[in-house]
Specification:
15 strands, amino-acid biosynthesis, UDP N-Acetylglucosamine Acyltransferase, domain 1, about 15% strand, Trimer_LpxA-like_sf, 2 domains
């Protein structure tokens, strides 16, 4: 118990630059207070003193603002920063070196008995206000952004953001091949879609995906048509926009727009 407490205090120093000394951590950090009381309550829970365990858990909630069910399994070097409003359900499982910020909920989505809360593997970081709901796993090293709502499994090493959550992959090879092709094409035509990431549910971004796919298919068909025309007629040479000069009408329109802009600038300066 003492060795585990020492590791928990060391985790505070490793992850909170505001921590100055051991006495300060022991006396002023509600995350440490809640963790000490939970470890005691969890031992009581395992020994079938469940009423006493729940009573200690309730006192911990009153004293710290952090609610951890005594049945929850928590690993080593667990750190709750700030802590107020954190809720951890009965069947939640938390690995080693996990960090939670204030307002995090590890909750369930069913009233049935059995496993109904999430499992957080080693090294997971959950930002303030995030809600992780359901009996699935947030895999090793994953990060959950502030106020994200997670209702399905989170792969290893990714960052989950938004409501509903979408995943940001560090490694491009982890992204689906269709998405890689779509992004490569968008980059090749100079298009920079904002936040078009995997599992994004925004209908506007879904529309952008459809348009990019359609443009890519049309461009391939045009290239095939140009190739076939070149085979039929050797004199056919497709012109690109770079080689095609602007017509007199186009130059005239550009000049009119330039003059209109200058006139507006003069009016605004007056």
């Amino acid at each position: 118990m003492i060795k585990q407490l020492k590791e928990d205090i060391e985790a505070v120093f490793a992850r909170d630059p505001a921590a100055r000394n051991t006495l300060e951590v022991l006396t002023t950090y509600p995350g440490i207070h809640a963790l000490i009381m939970h470890r005691m309550a969890h031992e009581l829970w395992k020994k079938e003193y469940k009423g006493t365990a729940r009573l200690l858990s309730s006192f911990s909630r009153f004293a710290t603002g952090i609610e951890i069910h005594p049945g929850a399994k928590i690993g080593k070097r667990f750190f709750i920063d700030h802590g107020m409003g954190v809720v951890i359900g009965e069947t939640a499982e938390i690995g080693d070196d996990v960090t939670l910020y204030h307002g995090v909920t590890l909750g369930g989505t069913t009233w049935n008995k059995g496993k109904r809360h999430p499992t957080l593997e080693d090294g997971v970081v959950v930002g303030a206000g995030a809600k992780i709901l359901g009996p699935f796993t947030v895999h090793k090293g994953a990060k959950v952004g502030s106020n994200a709502v997670i209702t399905k499994e989170v792969p290893e090493g990714v960052t989950a953001v938004g409501n509903p959550a979408r995943y940001i992959f560090k490694d491009k090879n982890q992204i689906e091949p269709d998405e890689v092709s779509r992004r490569d094409y968008a980059e090749s035509i100079g298009f920079q879609p904002y936040a078009t990431t995997q599992d994004q549910s925004d209908p506007i971004l879904e529309g952008i995906r459809v348009l990019l796919d359609r443009m890519q298919k049309n461009e391939k068909r045009m290239n095939i048509l140009c190739q076939r025309l070149s085979e039929l007629d050797p004199t056919f040479k497709p012109q690109t926009s770079k080689n095609q000069p602007l017509s007199k009408e186009e130059l005239k329109i550009i000049e009119e727009v330039r003059r209109e802009c200058e006139a507006q600038n003069k009016t605004s300066s007056i």
